[in-house]
Known about the structure:
The complex is a heterodimer.
Chain A: H1 7-23, H2 31-63, H3 70-119, H4 122-126, H5 130-172, H6 174-180, H7 183-221, H8 223-228, H9 232-284, H10 290-331, E1 355-362, E2 371-378, E3 383-388, H11 394-401, E4 409-414, E5 417-418, H12 424-430, E6 431-434, E7 443-444, H13 445-450, H14 458-467, H15 471-476, E8 484-485, H16 494-508, E9 512-516, H17 524-537, E10 542-546, E11 558-563, E12 566-571, H18 573-579, H19 582-588
Parallel strand pairs in A: 3-10, 3-11, 6-9, 9-10
Antiparallel strand pairs in A: 1-2, 1-4, 4-5, 7-8, 11-12
Chain B: H1 3-13, H2 15-32, H3 34-47, H4 53-102, H5 105-110, H6 113-156, H7 158-165, H8 170-205, H9 207-212, H10 216-268, H11 274-316, E1 337-344, E2 354-361, E3 366-371, H12 377-383, E4 395-397, E5 400-401, H13 407-412, E6 414-417, H14 428-432, H15 441-450, H16 454-459, H17 477-490, E7 495-499, H18 507-520, E8 525-529, E9 541-546, E10 549-554, H19 556-562, H20 565-580
Helix pairs in contact in B: 2-4, 2-6, 3-4, 3-11, 4-6, 6-7, 6-8, 6-11, 7-10, 8-10, 8-11, 10-11, 15-17, 19-20
Amino acid sequence: MSTMDSSADRQRRKAGVSSLGRLLPYAKPYVWQFALVLVLVVIFNASTVMQPYLVKVAIDSDISTKHPNYHGVLVIALIYVGVVIIGVAANFAQTVLLQNAGQNVIRTIRLSLFSHIERQAMRFFDTRAVGRLVTNVSNDTETVSQFFTNFFLSLIRDGLSIIMIVVAMFELNGRIALYCMVLIPIIFAISFGFRGQLRRAYQTTRTRLSNVNAFLAENLAGMRIIQIFHQEERQSRAFEELNESHRQANVYEYRTSVWFNRAFEVLGNIAVAAVVWMGGGAVLKHWIAFGTLYAFIRYIQQFFQPINAMTQQWNTLQSSMVAADRIGQVLAVQPEIVDAPEPVKVNPENVRGRIEFHHVTFGYQPEQPVLRDINFVIEPGQFVGVVGATGAGKSSVMSLLTRFYEPQAGDITVDGISIRAYAQADLHRIIGIVQQDVSLFTGTVADNIRLFREDISDAKVHEAAEIVGADALIRRLPNGYATQLYGKGSNLSAGERQLISFARIVALNPRILILDEATASLDSQTEELVQRGLHTVAEARTTMVIAHRLSTIRRADNILVLDKGRLVEQGTHEQLVAASGLYAMLDAESGVEAGTRDTRPL
Amino acid sequence: MSAKTLMRQFLSENKWAYVISILAIIISNFINVQFPHILGRFTNALEAHRLNLHDVLVYAILLFVVGVVYVQFYAIGQYRNGKLGREFEYLLRRRLFAHWEVLSTEYFRHKSIGDLLNHAMNDIRQVREALSGGLNILTNAVFLLLATLIMTFTTVSMKLTVVSMIPLLFIPLFIVWFGPLIRTSSRQVQEALSDMSDLTEESLSSIRLIKATANEDVETERFRAKVDHIVHQQLTLFRRSATFQAFIPTMSSISFAIALLYGGYLTLSHQIQLGAFVAFTLYIGQLVQPLQQIGFVINNFQRASASLTRLQVLLDERPSITDCEQPIELGHVRGEIEVNLPSFQYADGQVPALRDIRFHLMPGQTLGIVGRTGSGKTTLVNLLPRIFDPPAGTIFLDGHDIRDIRLEALRQSIAYVPQDGFLFSTSVGENISFGDANASREQIEEAAKAAQVYDDIASFPDGFDTVIGERGVTLSGGQRQRTAIARAFLKSAPILILDDSLSAVDMRTEKRIIEELEKVRQHKTTLIIAHRLSAVRHADLILVLEHGEIVERGTHDELIRLDGIYAKTYHMQQQGEALRA
Ligand SMILES: Nc1ncnc2c1ncn2[C@@H]1O[C@H](COP(=O)(O)OP(=O)(O)OP(=O)(O)O)[C@@H](O)[C@H]1O
Ligand SMILES: Nc1ncnc2c1ncn2[C@@H]1O[C@H](COP(=O)(O)OP(=O)(O)OP(=O)(O)O)[C@@H](O)[C@H]1O
Ligand SMILES: [Mg+2]
Ligand SMILES: [Mg+2]
């Protein structure tokens, strides 16, 4: 077995250690609790170390002497019980205190991790599986907390035990104690021998387990597709592969750790034999009393308890380092888009709603522009349509306006102020967007409309639903507004989901409203109801509507036509049709009748 | 097969393996208890000055041998048990996944993925820990206890042992009383953790919405509430386990004190020898650890049994949609569909979602379904591949009740593009060929071309190997939808269902896709749900649904003449045309 680590390995460990270090400040507020734990541990340890000593006293001075003294034995027995009770009490207090501190540490880590993730720009989420982030928040924090509880505890309790036992041994007899110290280098040698192997085994198992986890998460979400396409067997096989490779790693890891722990136990037993051999000789030569030998034997046995406990914690240390590293990697990502140091102060109510794009160029990957040199102005209160083939970049325009991504070049202003000067929260209060994909939460319909905000009353919720024409429909549901939605709103029809996400934006009443294909899943009548409703609430609101159904935007004040990331035309419907460009072509193809190869007579 | 049966079966299949490993542990224990015994004899001999240096060496070697052999045996038992436990873990996961694959949509709607994952990860681990580590420690503890008792009875003093053991008898009583409290607490902790994971999953999946509505703080508050709840539950659990774990050493220390008092008295009154007394104190010391461990293991078993029960509930879930007794194997499917459905109601709905739906489609015909939001269109087409089960004798494929057809054959004959086309986070190519692992590159490209998504994909730097984000987040709405269409096209089935699958594509692309459909239309029975009438315009039969009922039916021309809802919609969508004319 090699004691040499590959450099990658070493680096990873270093990363683990330093990420653990970076998490230490979270424990700082609890430093007094940790200190108190230390004191309690000392008390507990002292009580353990005193136990063999008390028996030794009983043997040497009360039982195995020329003048046996039963009263002495009685006193010692009472002291013994007292000592144990104090130890147990200290141990109890220590556990509760430490777990309290540990739990509060995870709580803080969780909260800051969660809000850190929430602050990230959209690109962060494009490349990361939600399942893995959830694992960071739930499992990795849990694992790290074991560092603050189990590992910390073991370090001080077992470390202290070892020291106390060693001191006690030297107190008893320096020479034998000195011989016993031969054990220490041996222990180190064993640990070093196993170290690399254990860590590698551990990491492999963890990685494979999280592959299993990620696979399950995705496949459970897509189970319907698997069933419809009848791919159960294939997915089973894929799962089998992951599961099997995890099993192998898991068994290997276990075997390594069994040999590691047993190696110490063998060592412990050999040490006792050695003490008997040396100590026995010493007793024969009357160098030491028998009680001393007795105590030595007990001490050597006790000596290996903390050592074993600490090696058990070796795994904890490994796992917390891996977990801390993963948390650290998330925390180390600075949000790509941050507020200006002193954002402009705005009252969202007073925004007029003028939007300007000024030579905006943008690509999700810089070398692959999705939008090129986009220029347009939208005057306050205008109703603007955005059209273009699928994939033309319409949704991307909206993502830039809401500052989900930052353009590579150019500037975007709202009311003449660059959107970079606004606080993002303010910007998002000014601009409301109904997105192409509907997000619903588990909770009631009303909660979903008010987005769990307490400042939006029931009356307002109802009003908003009425405006978008969802009121009647919601009242038809089993419990009306109190109907519980399942995850992602799966007990509603697609259109109903879309209506609820409409109502939600109306309840927020933003000055600028963006509808990204927001009526795609609605039938024409419902769509018209929604649009009429929207018109009545805020005549003066700036509205941008992306739609493939051109009838939706035919009445717009201005229509922007995008093609392959360029703004190729703009104007009113009539102007654009007259210009007979791309829009006119789209329009010609857009009627129910147009373009069909149907030859049947009407 | 339920979790408990599975466990029983596993145990019985591996009974010899278990017998061997448990035997190894037992042997190791009987060797281990020789340790104090030898030390006791050594003490007596030493006291009696009957020893010389050579004897001391013999004792030491004896101890050495005992120590090493004991560890060998124990390691073998421990490793084998652990390995078996991990094998069971693997089996249980495999079983769970296979089980999930047969459960119906209805089931998954009620469950959160976070909760299911918690089962697959934590509950299974809990059971495994009990089965491997727990079993090791328990066997070890019980036999160590037994062996120790035997040794003390035979070599020290029965009286002394019995008297000293009295306080230890309270331990089992305490365990019985306290164990359930820990189990409850432990379950509550698991549930609190699940809740938090669910919320996190939901929030992060909806991050666009949360950011767009500046709702971050509200979400953080909701998250904080969950986290606080966990802290509360965890602390309760820790307090309880700490109490539990404090009780055992207390009792054993009292035992020890009795041993000291009574044993001291016996030694003083020369009823036992000093060596016996020394050995006995060592034995009592040896008893404390297994007792503590038994407490720990029982704690562990309590948790595992809570987990096993949770798994049990899960595996007991019967798939609601299964093959009938003697399923019909469909050979060649023509694609004739007949629906004769008096009513269909969701399990938790109050009124039927569909009523009196009757129509007949000949092979190769196209059915268009339109209607208001929530009128039951998706519900209707979901019945065909039995995503939800229709009542018996209501839907027929090629003249057979679909409930009599083998589920596999039924689903094999249907290509379906659901309204929310879920994509996997693999490459675009793999997504398209999801229905057929052996599809060639040409087939994939052909399907992509038919779905009009080929050019988009070709423009990506990695082409068909582009890995798309979770649920396809890095695609545009229309690209996602067309990828799902391509996936259905590749599976060349006699029946094709498109549920509002053209809603996110522009008119021109829609036209082209419909043209593609027209080409293959002769060979396929097609069901198209759409809001844009252009998609159903050419259908052989169009149904207009309203509140779950068919309110109008006929061809496009017939419906226009009828001048009802369909005609009204038509005019709304034709408006532009009219304006221009
Ligand atoms: N998060 C992303 N990461 C990388 N590429 C992306 C991302 N989102 C979109 N794209 C790519 O950018 C291009 C424009 O996408 P966008 O969503 O703006 O199109 P769109 O005009 O809204 O189309 P649709 O009408 O289909 O919704 C597409 O080619 C798409 O693949
Ligand atoms: N799983 C379910 N459990 C209970 N009710 C449901 C479930 N799914 C849908 N519903 C209800 O059944 C009705 C019909 O829903 P369905 O999804 O069939 O509508 P749809 O016609 O497809 O509408 P859309 O055009 O909006 O997609 C709706 O009122 C909906 O709320
Ligand atoms: Mg889009
Ligand atoms: Mg639907």
